[in-house]
Specification:
Length: 694
């Protein structure tokens, strides 16, 4: 089992002779530039810990706003800024790039890749982007429609642009690229719709493809791309998974260890989620939900560890990976740490993939524990949903999603943006693959929200998040700060003994890293999901965070954010000691209960509309037509909106906003049924001024 175990590296700033290891990359010795933020996780180890300490526990309450920059668009803002030579590079929704003066916030240039708005239909989880990568005089970023683009960092002019995907399939790119040894590494998303996962390396100068590693096997009747794909195919059984795509997309996390010269990638869920559909004969389905170690020069496989064999719950292993050297049982171990969706916190030997420890960091019921002999989770038979629906925790958004963790080598703690959300999984025995919509293999009816207000309130109460300080050696919680809602932002740790996080209700908070005491907080007026960074210019330390609510939960979740202005345009906020007090947040405009038109419909029409809505609309407009506040809540459509409803849903009247026509998947009758259901929900939930019994 040695080669089938997950290692999580956190290599920490110890490479004094790094140039000998990686002579092609001048950014490898990160200790030489502690004032900048050069890589996605600040270093290859992705620990998101800064050695800066000018702002610390004794004075953090004296920071204020230095500058802000509005991106000009709403939707989810998830960027990690890159700061080099006094310039900050950020991304915004629709894959737009901005270069800013990192001291003043002045706009230096903007590059808009002009993403076709129709491609938003292929984005499972908002039109987000997590940032750029930097190498010499170029920056690199991916676009939601699958391009990888290189720009001159000083001017924003395009060096090259290449298409990394097959545009006949619903691929997307939301993650930030990584630069390793003069290669730019990028994966993609799309597993919910049906794609085959892979990660690709391109030459930084030319954009030429250097290698590609597929994460799941293709058609077994055709030649395999590598011995690993031939081995993987033996772990899939029955069905035609390759027609569905298989999944395993590398849509976010990566890390690199220069000393071991190893690239670590995290792979995603199966496509469909439900293994009984994609692989009815069973099997582990390699390399889904795995950490895979690769040779960065060739893409050759070294080892893997699968966190969720035979995943049927969307338990991706794409969550943030951290490399560290930890003393465990009196021995220094090179480890990789990860808290994937499945609810277990893993510590793995990154040299060989051997499991060191695993304990649940959030409540779980799909498994009882991880078997230390086999490295496999011991599944709970009661949560096998083939015959009977199963109420399961974590749900598909996981105990931890994409929002990055942070590791402080002084406290020895990992800080996790954790959350608790239940989900009812149920096998869809009538599943048919449709590339135009989500393909989960779940019964749509089981995703319906309770219509009883008291039952809905109970679901709401059971859905929340918290900042969790976790001891990875002892595998136990040290402290937590609980929040009303899930889906808060990523973490930053500093040598000033601080941990900083933005929350989904719009607060930006500084904590004492050891105790969890709140030392400072400001209301930004907008939900925050992005991670903060810090840097120093002219002897002044700055702390930066992008605000702007969105992403998977904000769109598909049925509970509006507690923040006041989820639909405002996003902003970069940058703080420093002695900065200005922030102006009071702008209050949101109260929604006016509309008078909606009457529709003569029967219960069966509404029931059919409920099904079609949850099949095609809930992932952007919210389950039960309860919007999260970012994209319009359809219950508030007025009489004019309803008059143009068919023009929007079938005619594409709002294509320029990303709401493209659904005429290729919905009939006129189905569109009318959806409209009837929306009106019924407006009345049922008290939104419409029209009496509910009209």
């Amino acid at each position: 089992m040695k080669n089938h175990f997950l290692v999580l590296p956190l290599l920490f700033l110890i490479f004094s002779c790094s140039e000998a290891v990686d002579s092609k990359n001048p950014l490898v010795d990160f200790n030489s530039s502690p004032n900048e933020w050069l890589l996605h996780g600040r270093t290859y180890a992705e620990e998101r810990h800064s050695p800066l300490d000018q702002i610390n526990t004794s004075n953090v309450d004296q920071i204020g706003l230095s500058w802000s920059f509005e991106t000009g668009t709403n939707r989810g803002h998830e960027t990690t800024p890159i700061v080099k030579d006094g310039v900050m590079f950020i991304t915004a929704p629709w894959s737009v790039v901005h270069a800013l003066d990192a001291k003043t916030g002045d706009l230096l240039w903007t590059y808009d890749p002009q993403v076709e708005r129709a491609w938003a239909n292929n984005a499972c989880c908002d039109v987000v982007n997590r940032g750029v990568a930097l190498y010499e005089n170029s920056i690199f970023f991916g676009t939601i429609d699958g391009r990888l683009i290189s720009l001159d960092k000083d001017t924003g002019t395009e060096n090259w642009s290449i298409l990394t995907i097959d545009k006949s399939r619903p691929y997307t790119i939301t993650g930030a690229p990584r630069i390793v040894k003069g290669n730019v590494i990028i994966g993609n998303g799309g597993g919910e719709f049906g794609v085959r996962g892979y990660v690709t390396a391109y030459d930084v100068d030319s954009g030429d493809e250097l290698w590609r590693f597929y994460t799941v096997p293709g058609n077994p009747n055709e030649p395999f791309e590598s011995p690993e794909m031939e081995i993987a195919a033996k772990t899939w059984s029955g069905g035609k998974w390759w027609e569905y795509g298989g999944g395993g997309t590398v849509w976010d996390s990566m890390a690199y260890d220069p000393a071991l010269d190893t690239l670590y990638i995290g792979t995603g869920n199966g496509s469909p989620w439900n293994r009984y559909v994609r692989s009815p004969g069973g099997g582990d389905n390699l390399y889904l939900s795995s950490i895979v170690a690769l040779d960065p020069d060739t893409g050759d496989y070294k080892w893997h560890y699968q966190t969720t064999p035979g995943d049927s719950w969307d338990y991706t292993a794409t969550q943030h990976m951290i490399l560290a050297d930890l003393e465990i049982n009196g021995q220094m171990r090179k480890v990789i740490m990860q808290a994937p969706k499945n609810g277990f916190f893993y510590v793995i030997d990154r040299t060989n993939g051997e499991l060191i420890s695993a304990e649940n960091y959030v409540p779980i019921n799909w498994a009882t524990h991880v078997d230390m002999e086999t490295g496999r989770p011991v599944e709970n038979p009661a949560n096998n949903y083939f015959d009977t629906p199963a109420l399961t925790t974590p749900g598909p958004l996981g105990g931890h999603n994409w929002q990055p963790m942070a590791f402080n080598p002084d406290t020895g703690l990992v800080y996790i943006p954790a959350q608790e959300m239940l989900f009812v999984y149920s096998h869809d025995k009538d599943f048919e693959y449709n590339p135009k919509t989500w393909n989960t293999g779940q019964q749509i009816e089981m995703t319906y929200l309770p219509k009883n207000p008291d039952e809905l309130a109970m679901v709401d109460k059971a859905t929340f998040g918290y900042l969790l300080a976790w001891d990875p050696v002892a595998q136990k919680e040290v402290w937590r700060e609980q929040y009303q809602r899930p889906w808060s932002g990523g973490l930053l740790s500093t040598a000033g003994d601080l941990v900083l996080q933005g929350t989904s209700d719009g607060r930006f908070i500084a904590f004492d890293a050891a105790s969890g005491e709140i030392l400072w907080s400001v209301d930004t007026g907008q939900g925050i999901i992005a991670p903060p960074i810090t840097y120093m210019i002219d002897e002044e330390q700055y702390i930066a965070v992008q605000v702007g609510y969105g992403g998977a939960y904000a769109l598909a979740g049925a509970f509006p954010s507690a923040n006041k202005n989820p639909a405002q345009n996003g902003r970069m906020l940058v703080f420093k000691l002695g900065g200005e007090e922030m102006s009071p947040p702008v209050q949101s405009i109260a929604k006016v209960n509309p008078v909606v038109p009457s529709m003569t419909t029967d219960a069966l029409t509404i029931a059919r509309g409920e099904y079609e809505y949850h099949e095609h609309c809930q992932f952007c407009h919210g389950a039960g037509v309860i919007g999260g506040g970012v994209i319009p809540d359809l219950r508030y459509l007025d009489e004019v909106d309803h008059q143009t409803f068919l023009g929007v849903i079938l005619g594409g009247m709002h294509s320029d906003k990303g709401m493209t026509s659904f005429k290729d998947v919905l009939s006129l009758e189905q569109a009318n049924q959806i409209q009837a259901y929306i009106i019924s929900q407006a009345k049922l939930t008290g939104v419409s001024e029209e009496a509910a019994d009209d």
